[in-house]
Each structure stands twice: as structure tokens, then as C-alpha cells.
Write a structure and sequence with these properties.
The protein has helices spanning 10-21, 40-43, 55-67, 83-93, 105-121, 145-157, 210-223, 232-236, and strands at residues 2-6, 25-30, 48-51, 72-74, 96-99, 128-135, 163-166, 174-181, 188-194, 199-205, 228-230. With 238 residues, it is of the alpha/beta class. It has two domains: 2-103 and 210-236, Rossmann fold (3-Layer(aba) Sandwich); 105-205, Dihydrodipicolinate Reductase, domain 2, CATH 3.30.360. A six-stranded parallel sheet has the order 2-1-3-4-5-11, sandwiched between helices. Strands 7-8-6-9-10 form a five-stranded mixed sheet. Strand 9 and strand 10 (199-205) form a beta hairpin. It is elongated. The two termini are 26 Å apart.
């Protein structure tokens, strides 16, 4: 495939390595230094666009790729208040979009494990639950999109919880999300249930960014000839 990378930061560079290893070509790389190259004409030369930018530009980046009739893969977080517009555009205009808050295969297995445990804990009211995420100091958003996805999975199953809050906004009916930024940590996510008697904790720790990058490239291969809105659940057949 001919691939466009919209956003060429740390993640973009990891995706490039994996894509080249899998015999794909990166024919367009866009970052803040060459935004003038981000045109419909240049996008017409690619099969798939991979968008990993920043929250402020993600939505317009995605729309431009869709207007060029290019399938789009995105992992940018912080713009999801507009994702329903993208879903509608896919449906009404036969466009193609793939979104995940985290493209790691292991993390998506963790999402399913988290929801399963939550169904068991739904009737165990003596346990409170919290989410913690730890990332490198350059990560812009907090909580992470992955932590929010984890919390939303909990909310779907735990009847005693109605919302998630940042850790300093705790409430009885809320799931607290603690965000830590330090070092060069690729990503650690934990879910902890605690009562006055014991604790139960599940966690996922990324060793590096290669797992995320591989998931993105696999999603690109999956989406190339499809239309509509897709997620990791579709690709992994959960």
C-alpha cells in the first residue's frame, strides 16, 4: 500500500518502521514543517492515511482525507466530541474511518478483560474502583484516551457508577482516573478494586511503542478496501 502519515512525531516514526518492514510505502509525510504539502492532490496518490496529530487539528485533518476519498486511520485523542459527525459522514457519504484510543492488541484484550471483571464486580458493592494511567512526560492529554476507554467500559457494567472524573474530583458515583507523567514510559494502565479487606488489580504495561505501531499498520491493511466506521473490535472479531 501507499500510505500517508499525517503527523510525523514519535508515533509516526514507529508506524513508518513497521509499515516498511511489511513492504508498504510511505509516500507522504506531513508535520508542522510542511503543512503546505497536505493537499487533496497529494492525498490522491495514497491508499490509506494514518492520522496521529494533535487534538486541535485532528478533526480537520480527518475531514480533508475523507474529502480526498481516502480511508483514514486515527489514534489521536482529545477531539472525540466530534466523532459522531465522522460516523454520520461515513454512513451518508460512504466514507471509511477506523478509530481506536489504543491500537495495541494486548490493550484491546485488556479492555475485554476489564469489562468481564466489571460484570462480576457489579454486585460487590463493598469494592470501590479506580483507574490509573502512567505515560511519558511529553504526552499532551490527561487522562489518556485509553484510560477513558477503560473507565467507559466500567461504567457500562457497574450500575453504582455514573461518570468518570479526574482524581481530584472524586465522587461516590464516579470512577476516579489518576494520571501520572514521568520519564519515557510508553504506557501503563491499571484498574484497582479496593474494599476494607483486600484489593484486586489488573494492569497492562507496554514495553515499547512497537506494539501500538503494529496495530495501526494491521488496521490499515484491514481497512483498505472497506467502507464505513470501524474499530479494533471489528478487526479482532471480538
Amino acid at each position: 500500500m501507499n500510505i500517508a502519515l499525517i503527523g510525523y512525531g514519535r508515533m509516526g516514526k514507529e508506524i513508518e518502521k513497521i509499515a516498511l518492514e511489511r513492504n508498504h510505502k510511505i509516500v507522504l509525510k506531513i508535520d508542522i514543517n510542511n503543512i503546505d504539502k497536505f493537499t487533496i492532490e497529494n492525498l490522491s496518490k495514497v491508499d490509506v492515511a494514518i492520522e496521529f496529530s494533535i487534538p486541535e487539528t485532528a478533526y480537520s485533518n480527518i475531514l480533508k482525507c475523507m474529502d480526498a476519498d481516502i480511508p483514514v486511520i486515527s489514534g489521536t485523542t482529545g477531539w472525540l466530541n466530534k466523532i459522531e459527525d465522522i460516523k454520520t459522514k461515513c454512513k451518508l457519504e460512504n466514507k471509511t474511518f477506523f478509530y481506536a484510543s489504543n491500537y495495541s492488541i494486548g490493550v484491546n484484550i485488556f479492555f475485554k478483560l476489564n469489562k468481564f471483571l466489571a460484570t462480576i464486580m457489579n454486585n460487590q458493592n463493598q469494592y470501590n474502583v479506580e483507574v490509573e494511567e502512567i505515560h511519558h512526560i511529553k504526552k499532551l492529554d490527561a487522562p489518556s484516551g485509553t484510560a477513558i476507554t477503560i473507565a467507559e467500559g466500567l461504567l457500562h457494567e457497574l450500575e453504582r457508577k455514573n461518570q468518570w472524573n479526574k482524581e481530584n474530583e472524586e465522587a461516590y458515583d464516579a470512577i476516579a482516573i489518576k494520571s501520572v507523567r514521568k520519564g519515557d514510559i510508553a504506557g501503563v494502565h491499571k484498574v484497582k478494586y479496593e474494599s476494607q479487606f483486600d484489593e484486586i488489580e489488573i494492569s497492562h504495561s507496554a514495553k515499547n511503542r512497537k506494539g501500538f505501531a503494529l496495530g495501526v499498520v494491521l488496521a490499515s491493511e484491514y481497512i483498505k478496501d472497506k467502507t464505513g466506521f470501524h474499530t479494533m473490535d471489528d478487526m479482532l472479531k471480538f
